Sequence to fold (121 residues):
Amino acid sequence: MEAIVAAGMLVGVMAICLQMLGAVAAQRRAAEIRQTAIRETANVMERLGSTPWDELTEQSVQGIHLSKEAGQGLPEGELKIDLTNPTDEPDAKRIAVSLRWKDRTGRFVLPVRLVAWRYRR
Fold:
């Protein structure tokens, strides 16, 4: 009888451990996906920051898309780049890069956003 009770307790503990391992693996995958998004957003911002002033236009940023790696790693990833010229500072441009993707349930997660100001030299 004691062996049956011990086996039952062992099965219960193993079931809980398997659920915990599944949850940890899901969190690890989500963290890796978010890290990919952060890296891609930073790369896009760096590319825009190194673009010559006169070439940094609304039309030029429309041609920027996710890299192949990010496209494969981010489910339905959407890259959005906003370039605005504030009227009170004609020698400045505001660059906002936002990247969002869908999780396993098909809902968009909180996006990764970076904002930078670029000034004419």
